[in-house]
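User:
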Amino acid sequence: MERLRRFPEQGVTDRAALDALLDSQWVGVLSCVFDGRPLAVPMLYARDGDRLLLHGSTGAGALRGVAAGAPAVLTVFALDALVVAPTTFESSVNYRSATVRGPLEPLDDERRGAALDLFSEVLIPGRTGEVRPPHRKELVATLALSLPIRSDGWLLKVADDWPATPEEADAEDDVWSGLVPVRTVLGAPVPAPWATDLPVPDSVQQLTQSGGAGSPH
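Assistant: Predicted structure:
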């Protein structure tokens, strides 16, 4: 993994911790320099073992750039708690953040369909068995990319601590301090106007019933 220069004590080298963060989120920010301009694009992603899968329209300039070999990095962030200290200066947040950088490989026609199915199954397990497969035209219009998780290409930072004590913060002892946890939960499914008479499919029911607090997948 890469070396963390600021607050090195927050650097985590455990690959399992990296996987846990990547698997708990759905969205990252893909950053690159394309045509001399910095670009940062929020994107869905899915982890498949030692690679991350991303996809988008073949008309997206940023994706075309990274597919052509432009250096890129994907950043994933999870906010776990507000850290309420005895002073505002000492207050902060507990969080996990990761960057994965490296060359993104465009997937050819033979691998694109399987990768997109796997992407869907990571987000909503079982959904691909409930709907038709993509048309050829849809596959051609989609760019699928694979970002390898290389041992020297990722960095994980974790802030997970109590707030400063009143003594450390040079504050009075009677000021409350503590943590306010932040959680992500999946709500009850809301049918589209044309699907109000249809039952909620098993894939969606199982997804929402699993809870998902802090762990979308």
